[in-house]
Give the backbone structure.
Amino acid sequence: MSAAPMIPSPEAYFGKFLPARDPLLQHMEQEAQRENIPIVGPVVGELLYLLTTLGQARRVLELGTATGYSTLFLARACSAFGGRVLTVENDPQMAARARANFQTADLADTIELRQGDALEVVRGLGEPFDLVFMDIDKSFYQPALPDCRRLLRAGGLLVADNTAFRDADGFNRAIAADRGWRGLHLYAFLPGHSPEKDAVTLALRI
């Protein structure tokens, strides 16, 4: 039995199916491209929106805000359930720009931004979260993992971006070796992402 034919030029094909974005998100994408600001792009942004919505996550923690592009997807999703996002950014200039974007999006009441080192901030947190999204320096992923596990409720979801980066190797191996996680590494073509060929890791806290 012959294999079913695949779509020719799949990257060009699926590149046509980018999710719709409002003018603010499009402006942030253009700004990121112009200033070389790494953002998750519309495909991973929509994935975050869907995962937050499917899990009905009301308490969301984000490590790594930048200008707040991914934060808007998380906040728009959890606001439907009366939820909130706590996001952490170390760079004060990026934090200021993110706050301005949250105001423009009319989501400032849904998002709390703490400016500081992500590893230090998570050590001081105690409340449980339904979803954690990691997008900080990849060398910090593994050191942050124990606190992410502590802060996630049982059945909560950890999402980590850029896990095809070499510095994420220790984190990837730790997820795979720890029976406290049920994880999956997805290597994919992600149009508009930085970079467009990268991995996203999903891990359920057992």
User: Anything to note?
Assistant: The domain at 37-205 is CATH 3.40.50.150 (Rossmann fold).
